[in-house]
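Side project, low priority. Logging it here so it doesn't get lost.
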Amino acid sequence: MRIALALPGGKRVAPEAMVGARRSDSWGFPRWGGYGRGSEAATVRLCDRHGCNDVGTCPAPKSPNNPDRWMFCVAHAAEYNRGWDYFAGLDAEEIAEREAAERQTHEGYHESAHYGWATSGDGTRSRDELRALDLLGLGPDAEFDDVKKAWRSKAKEVHPDVRPGDEDAAKAFRALQLAYEVLRAGEERREWKG
């Protein structure tokens, strides 16, 4: 015996025709069906190095300042980058501009170095702090007490009260003041972040 269902408008439909999408058994935990079952094949890009059949996951620029990229496997990307010069073909001014742009956009990565278990001389000082230490005649491992002593001794030699009217001494004093301020701000930042 076969039963037909009546729909509005007088149409009769067999129950088998009303069966919609079946409930999948790929929900919840544990997942009874395999992951990716019934999905489309994934497109994989191979390494651009001739003769290599590994997956190319590492982008590498085809030439300096060019948006086109090669896609190499990890081994060939390391080989490609071994001889790469990031500043090739740039003059000193362009190098400084590029460095400033990189520092401006990626300062958070440098700031994260302060969260390590580190002391001040193992890479947690910024390039400006290292330049300030050079100006004071100190190494990168110098403590802040050494910075204070060096600053006081050098500032006494070129202070405007000691050498009135000497423009070179005034310029050197301003440079020492700036170096001290950079190092003091870096020390406060390290103390605040722990």
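Brief comment: Strands lie at 5-6, 12-13, 58-61, 69-72.
Revisit when time allows.
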